[in-house]
Amino acid sequence: MDQISSPTSARLRAMQAEGMNLDSCPVRTVVSRLGSKWAPLLLQLLAERPHRFSELRRLVPDISQRMITQTLRDLERDGYVNRSVLPTKPPSVTYSLTDMGVSMFESYRLLFEWAEANHQAVRAAREAFDASDKG
Amino acid sequence: MDQISSPTSARLRAMQAEGMNLDSCPVRTVVSRLGSKWAPLLLQLLAERPHRFSELRRLVPDISQRMITQTLRDLERDGYVNRSVLPTKPPSVTYSLTDMGVSMFESYRLLFEWAEANHQAVRAAREAFDASDKG
DNA sequence: TTTTAGAGTCTCAAAAAGAGACTATATGTA
DNA sequence: TACATATAGTCTCTTTTTGAGACTCTAAAA
């Protein structure tokens, strides 16, 4: 198989030996975008249904307009999000998931579900850590 | 069900109405850490087997020591990673996944697999976007 | 005696994120 | 007519994060 695999340590050793740069690692290429601060939240909303720019702004009051624009642009660039402009006055812009976005989100969703089911445990771990000498 | 659900737009509206702050959203709490720049890569390596600090450094040559330390600390704080110091001279430190880390990674892994299978499509989308007037 | 290894910390520079003002156009309201 | 509102952003400035690289400490090996 000629597909680049995930970076197991054996693979990483091989990549180094071949002088490959790790920027070409597919997982990093994809996951680093999706894990950005606001992408998960916006993806969840778009997975629910298409939304307009101003809806997203209202739904997520603590995101700046600049970050909405930028995050949506990044997601559009990677092919997950479709941006469609309706020529109303003033123009309205609707964002929705592409087929690829839906496909990706099916896999991403499992982590979200884990997070919902386990966030108390994560919180507890944080508090324990902070209360210990390490914190 | 009294569990805080994922932030559907209905839920977000409710949270706003109640004056809740969104920092308490479980998905954001959990996913934002896991999506940081280096966490996915280090988690993959630790999911494979426990590693020592210097092993990780060698396997990922383009991460600074500072970022290894910090990312591992964050993952330890959240309860995914165990740090064990052996009193050798010089001391050796081994990092491994906790049970919770293994549990979480089972869900995260699906996104990684999606990324491996679809990174060409993502790359293609990026190039198309950059070649268009939007880029 | 200088080097090497392990596991970091410290400081400073660069990149990313956030806050808030500002733009354009077209309606509705006083 | 003048003013405010709504849409979908951009621009600039400030604060946080990240990254690069030097520096620390201990003990064994060359």
What does this structure look like?
Two copies of one chain form a homodimer. Chain A is mainly alpha-helical and 135 residues long. Chain A has two domains: 1-25, no CATH class; 35-131, Winged helix-like DNA-binding domain superfamily/Winged helix DNA-binding domain (Arc Repressor Mutant, subunit A). Helix content of chain A is 60%, strand content 10%. The first copy, chain A, is built from six helices and three strands, in the order H-H-H-E-H-H-E-E-H. A three-stranded antiparallel beta sheet of chain A has the order 1-3-2. In chain A, strand 2 and strand 3 form a beta hairpin. The longest helix of chain A is centred in the C-terminal third of the chain and has 33 residues, at 99-131. The relative contact order of chain A is 0.10. At the A-B interface, helix 1, helix 2, helix 3, helix 5 and helix 6 of A face helix 1, helix 2, helix 3, helix 5 and helix 6 of B.
How many domains comprise the coordinates of chain A? Answer: 2
CATH homologous superfamily placement of the largest domain in chain A: Winged helix-like DNA-binding domain superfamily/Winged helix DNA-binding domain
Largest interface: A-B, 69 and 68 residues
> How would you spell out the order of helices and strands of chain A?
HHHEHHEEH
Low-confidence stretches of chain A: 1-6, 17-21
